Amino acid sequence: MNKKQEIQIVDVAPRDGFQAVKAPIPTVSKIEVSKALAAANFKRIEVGSFVSPKAIPQMADTKDVHAALSGLSDVRLSTLVPNAIGAKNAIEAGVSDLVFVLSASETHNQSNVKRSVSNSFGELEKIVDMGKCVEGFMLRFNIATVFDCPFEGRVLEQTVQDIIAQAVDLDFPIEFGLCDTTGRAFPDHVASFCSQVIEQYKSNKDIGWAFHGHDTYGLGVANALYAYDAGVRVFDAAAAGLGGCPFAPGASGNTASEDLVFTFENMGVATGIDLEKLLDVAALIDAFPDVDTGGHVRSLPRKRICG
Ligand code: COA
Ligand code: ZN
After folding, report:
1. Domain tally for the chain?
2. pLDDT at position 307
3. pTM, to two decimals
């Protein structure tokens, strides 16, 4: 493996994590978690989503959470948007680091955002147009169900390739998030697909790549390692392994951030994260009522993890 290269972990617990929790989490607790993640030295945190409050009531206070975090410096706070309305609301709330999502599989896209993939792509085009007028605008394009769909099974690589090509044609800086929404991707598939797209677009400096994994089948860390070996350097993960798409039956939490930090750091790959402080955030999240947390290393004695 290519070792000794820095990676960036984006903690998505305040979005992918919290959206999966049914019991309302107080706004003040959401703010506390994001601040604690920043204190653990995360330079990127995905905080909430500007989605329909009917679809995900838990995300209804996203604007307030961002407002309370506006004083944080030296950290990128992004937010998820499913359409142009969400992007407009986010930008009006002062958030210019957006994560747009559509699914490679038609069935999951319908289930998640109630529209066809081509209709969702039209929303992406509108968001790109909006972004051209916003200072400091950054776009992550999360393609959900890249490897596996909870309804259709294995997703054809060509389908994902076509979506990527169409987005690259917009001629706008994009970081693609290759999302294993169900956690049912296998490491060889992750490696081969990541290598393929990285190689294909390597001359385009406006294009970046991230891997967004879930740990449903215990493959989260393995998949991240294979993505790393293929050249990916940005990884989404969630403190305490919280997370999961409410519209993807059977999908459980994100790969735990602390599992990735523990693994990469012990391989000599710097993450920049303070693992002790991250474990404290994981404990904070785990203490919320009705949370379905995951991950592995946080259940071990601290001296065996941080030693
Ligand atoms: N934020 C807030 N409200 C929104 C919105 C957004 N991003 N997009 C649409 N709405 C509002 C519309 O203004 C409209 O309001 P009205 O009833 O007062 O007129 C209403 O929602 C219906 O609009 P429509 O475009 O028909 O939406 P929909 O009912 O088809 O829902 C989504 C589409 C995308 C808004 C909804 O499915 C959604 O928010 N999904 C999010 C899924 C998600 O977060 N999944 C997990 C992350 S991957
Ligand atoms: Zn996810």
Report:
1. 1
2. 74
3. 0.97
